[in-house]
């Protein structure tokens, strides 16, 4: 494991990971609430196991041969039990402890990307990254996976002119900044690298009210679904929203 992941594991095992509960305890923050679900206190176990995103990821990745106590033990036991497990992951072919740590790391990174950059990866992308990196850590795969190639459906489909719309102004500004390729977030750097490939990519801010079709799709999305779904023609429920969006058109090229 890379040193920073060992350090992360040590800090979390000591119950010192800087969640909102810990920030409140140290008087750095006023709210201990989880920024993802806005429902529970953001303890370490909440971020890494019990919150809606973490829980969906573990239901996808945790082998059925693991003990049902996986979802109920306290933090220290949870870490010890999983690190001493002899289970080999059926899909990834790597020891469960490696995938367990890799998943913890991806969940923590994802939480921070949400808090600091308002970027939230789909469940499938978190799972896929955790597996890919665990393969690399465990030596099943010799070369580090290039993050930018993991989920690049548009490129894989041979699209040459791509328009990406988002209602998050900060995300668009960050991605279109000349400094995007040296941004502190690996996700931003990876996207900047993708944009610089041999194709034309426009990143556009669009008001959510002008893109009700996308908003409706997001609200209907099943958080436990893991595959990318490509829609080649609009489903019935989207037709009236698409008509609305055509006549309520407002976007900026940043
Ligand atoms: Zn939560």
From TrEMBL:
<dbReference type="InterPro" id="IPR002156">
    <property type="entry name" value="RNaseH_domain"/>
</dbReference>
<dbReference type="Pfam" id="PF13966">
    <property type="entry name" value="zf-RVT"/>
</dbReference>
<dbReference type="Pfam" id="PF13456">
    <property type="entry name" value="RVT_3"/>
</dbReference>
<feature type="domain" description="RNase H type-1">
    <location>
        <begin position="152"/>
        <end position="221"/>
    </location>
</feature>
<dbReference type="InterPro" id="IPR036397">
    <property type="entry name" value="RNaseH_sf"/>
</dbReference>
<dbReference type="InterPro" id="IPR053151">
    <property type="entry name" value="RNase_H-like"/>
</dbReference>
<dbReference type="InterPro" id="IPR044730">
    <property type="entry name" value="RNase_H-like_dom_plant"/>
</dbReference>
<dbReference type="InterPro" id="IPR026960">
    <property type="entry name" value="RVT-Znf"/>
</dbReference>
<feature type="domain" description="Reverse transcriptase zinc-binding">
    <location>
        <begin position="2"/>
        <end position="58"/>
    </location>
</feature>
<protein>
    <recommendedName>
        <fullName>Reverse transcriptase zinc-binding domain-containing protein</fullName>
    </recommendedName>
</protein>
């Amino acid at each position: 494991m890379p040193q920073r992941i060992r350090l992360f594991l040590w800090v979390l095992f000591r119950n010192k990971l800087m969640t909102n509960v810990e920030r409140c305890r140290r008087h750095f923050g006023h709210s201990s609430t989880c920024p993802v679900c806005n429902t529970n206190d953001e303890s370490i176990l909440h971020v890494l196991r019990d919150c809606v995103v973490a829980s969906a990821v573990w239901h996808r990745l945790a082998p059925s041969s693991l003990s049902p106590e996986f979802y109920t033990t306290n933090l220290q036991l949870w870490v010890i039990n999983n690190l001493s497990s002899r289970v080999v992951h059926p899909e990834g072919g790597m020891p469960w402890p490696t995938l367990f740590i890799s998943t913890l790391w991806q969940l923590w990174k994802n939480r921070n990307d949400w808090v600091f950059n308002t970027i939230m990866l789909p469940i499938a992308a978190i799972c896929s990254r955790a597996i890919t990196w665990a393969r690399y850590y465990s030596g099943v795969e010799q070369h580090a996976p290039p993050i930018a190639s993991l989920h690049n459906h548009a490129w894989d489909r041979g699209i040459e002119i791509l328009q990406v719309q988002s209602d998050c102004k900060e995300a668009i500004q960050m991605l279109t900044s000349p400094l995007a390729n040296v941004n502190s977030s690996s996700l931003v750097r990876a996207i900047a690298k993708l944009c610089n490939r041999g194709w034309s990519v426009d990143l556009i801010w669009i008001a959510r009210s002008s893109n009700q079709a996308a908003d409706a799709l997001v609200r209907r999305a099943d958080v436990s679904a893991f595959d990318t779904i490509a829609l080649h023609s609009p489903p019935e429920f989207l037709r009236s929203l698409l008509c609305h969006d055509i006549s309520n058109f407002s976007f900026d090229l940043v």
